[in-house]
Amino acid sequence: MLKFIAFFRRFRVFLVFLILQIAALSSYFTVMSFPRTAFFNSSTAVTGTLLSWERDIVKYLYLDEANEKLQAENVLLEKRIADNFISIDTNTALINDTLRRLSFERTPATVINSSHTHANNYFTINAGSDKGIERKMGVVSSNGIVGIVYDVSENFAIVKSVLTTDINISAFINKSNAHGLIKYEGTNPRRVNLTGFSNDIEVEIGSKVLARGSGGYFPPGEPIGIVEKIEPVEGQPRWNIIVRLNQDMRKLRYVYVIKNIHKLELETLEKKIPELQ
């Protein structure tokens, strides 16, 4: 007890100051609403910023998983699109899909390696023969055509990009229905050439360029790009048509591999066509 009294006597001035200071601050924050609000708002802002950072990090970590789910959902939706079916009986009203057969299937995949700066470019996807991928299958993105499968292993596939000088994809312009071949000149990864158009065919800038469906690689009408520029070929009665690709190949990430269920039947039949003299 004597020690307590001695301690109080020694620090009595400081203890009285501390008690008065606490009382003053308590009264201040109780009576004045602004400092109290500012204090709590500052705490809330800091907490909100930390939570926002956490949410962004989590979203980034699960971005691939979310995109894979979206790809799977897109495949299901694609199976409902009429362009992916062939009609069994055109004279019968289509009540449900028992009157149609699925003609094209799509398998989602992710690009894990790619090039776009060479004359001939390729990219690798994480889907192979174990998922039914085969050579000469078409490959598209959500924006349009991107290439054709070149080689396959069990778990991976190499795709010949649309940015390849020896790739020939049959295409047509939707406003004229005239058709030609998509070719890459090896200079600009955003643009390809549409060849085979005589200059008596009217072509409008801004027209959509779509896949014709020849060879069975792609469904007819699959997007490719838009007509950006029309140039006459010197000394020839033809147009050189510059097409801006829908898909920026420098940013290619998620794709779908196209399986034409009737491709073998188509190839077998077309082999019977006599060679042109």
Automatic annotation (TrEMBL):
GO BP: any one term: regulation of cell shape
Phosphoprotein found in the keyword field: no
GO CC, any one term: plasma membrane
The organism's taxonomic lineage, starting at the top: Bacteria, Pseudomonadati, Bacteroidota, Flavobacteriia, Flavobacteriales
Family of this protein: Belongs to the MreC family.
Classification via InterPro entries: Cell/Rod_1 (IPR042177), Cell/Rod_MreC_2 (IPR042175), MreC (IPR007221), MreC_beta-barrel_core (IPR055342)
Residues of the Rod shape-determining protein MreC beta-barrel core domain: 111-259
Keywords linked to the UniProt accession: Cell shape
Name under which the protein is recorded: Cell shape-determining protein MreC
The species this protein was found in: Brumimicrobium glaciale
Pfam families assigned to the protein according to its UniProt record, in alphabetical order: MreC
